[in-house]
């Protein structure tokens, strides 16, 4: 999408944190002084130290992650294991209270989320919501900072997170560009989401855009379309390249090729209108257009309608992103691909917590399936073609 048009969604960096517990897990006022005794002597009373989740996990013979899931009622724990954890919690009089303990002994209970470039804010918000939801399940809190695409600001953010002694860092990148690797610059675990780095050992969670492009082209083929074109974003960027490869793969499996060379341009409605005007001149019998984003698709649809072409009766149109302001407000609403960004953020958190918890989670790129969302902008090809 057009970075300038998307810039309006920017949200300021914010701190989401609960009051920090003391190092040994006891309340800060764990030792109290009572009133005078009958003999006039003052006595000091030591409050009983609260049990920690680490102790519950050790007593139940499970990992800290599993104990947290069992205590918080998460579904990915067997009933037998859950019962064992809850029994250990009762025996230790454990109360899940983040104000009185730290989830991981000797750690801060916080992670940093670094937004590399807020001009990609369209993707930041849902990814961040997924990450926050996953963090809340395991009683970790998040410090969010926006580097705004500035290397100096990024360095300052890392210095701040180092001083805050965060337990790990999530780096939210841009699927269209290479995300800078920060793993060598800070001595805590780092996991990347919505953007790959150049370091093969970095863990990066990204949408499977090739699969997404394949889904869209396959859907159009299933509706009887055969003269299919592709209008997308800037040439050479990761998302654009992968989506185009998926479209061409699906067409190739059907013994077809694109009806015209791929049209590359900015992520904007204006580009969509310009591209379709040119396309109708070069390929007047085009019957479907796969667009690289919902924003481009919006412009393509308005351009087709201005030229007297019906959507979907004459030309079917698909978008990408399932971005409501365009996918739902286009007339007709767009068939598109949802990248499931909240799930992406949650998966990155699970990997990060696994590393913090001492698990071996591997390395490299994790591709996440996208979901086809069918709406009124696609439909069977008109008869008599």
Automatic annotation (TrEMBL):
GO molecular function, one term: transcription cis-regulatory region binding
SMART domains linked to this entry: HTH_LACI
Domain HTH lacI-type: 51-105
Region (Disordered): 1-43
Compositional bias ranges of the Basic and acidic residues kind: 1-12
Keyword Transcription included in the entry's annotation: yes
Keywords: DNA-binding, Transcription, Transcription regulation
Keyword check for Repressor: no
Name by which UniProt lists this protein: LacI family transcriptional regulator
Organism: Kineococcus xinjiangensis
